[in-house]
Structures are given as structure tokens and as C-alpha cells.
Amino acid sequence: MSATTSGTELPSLVKELEAVAEDARRTFGNLSPEQVNWQPSAESWSVGQCFDHLIKTNERFCAMLEAVGRGEHRSRAWERLSPLSGFFGKMVLKAVAPESARKFKAPSSTRPASSDVDPRVVGRFVEQQGRLAGLMRAAGKVDMKKTKVTSPFAGFVTYSLLDACRITVAHERRHFEQARRVTESANFPRHAPAA
Confidence class of residue 137 from pLDDT cuts 50, 70 and 90? Predict the structure, then answer.
């Protein structure tokens, strides 16, 4: 394991994943089905859609990390030879950062359900975070800075495995903040409807 990944960065990323899970459980875990599915507008995602999107996106990264953890990942020629891996890693990380104002259309495979998201979506996300954290720890046995991977969403984009983990955490914080803004909207249903 390299000094970069065995030092402070990988444990910090795993700790941040765990913090996102705890924040999600505490902030959104007790929302009613109406609250989970409320949208500020037809074009805006609900809390449930934000977490549905994260679950779908993270599954792609889980598959990548599982292969690395099992020792089955073999860098393809483009991953090894691409002179743009560092550039792509920084570019994608900047684009998905919570403070970035740029909006992107989610790949079709990660788009959330259009309505009626299961209110247990936050609990499913929290469970997935535990799995993702374990996979990141297991992948830390390789040099995550030197191991190059291809983005699961754009076949020409390569970056280091460490950048993939950084991107995952930043992307989660971005959508966590998006979900929080939904609950802070003026018309957000404050109380569950009477049964």
C-alpha cells in the first residue's frame, strides 16, 4: 500500500463516507413518504430522487472497487497510457464538488425514479455506505494513486482509483446538499399528513 493511501487520505475518505451516512440518517431518515417524494418543481429532484440517484451511481463504483479488492482489476491500455488521467480526475472532482454551480444531466442509468420513490431509500443509502466504505478499505491494498480506472459513465475518461474515491465522496456531498435545500424550500411539507 502506498504512503498516500495508507497515510491519511483513504481513512479520511472512508470517514467522510461514514459521516455522510450518519448525516443522511439523522437529517432525512424520519421523513414521511410525502416528504421524501416532494419536489420543489417538476424539473427539480425530491429528497428520494437524490438518494435514488446516489445509490445507482455508487453501485457502479462498488463494482469497480470489488474487482480491485479481489485483485481482478487489470488496467487497460488506455488507462495505462492516457496522459489525461490527472486532468480528468481534477476536472470531474471540481465538477461534482458541492460548491460547484454547474449542473449536469445524470446518465440515464443513474437517473432516479420519476415519482413515488420508496421512503426507505435513505435507509438503503445508509446501508450501501457501509458496503462502499468496506470496499474502499479493501481496495487500499493497491497503490490507489497509480491504479488507473475508467469512469463507469464515460469510456474515454480515466483517472486514478484514489480520484474515483474522492469523486464519489464529493458527489455524495453535492446531492446531500441538494436534498437539504429541498427540505428548506418554503412549500416543503413540514408535517406528515394525518392518518
Answer: very high
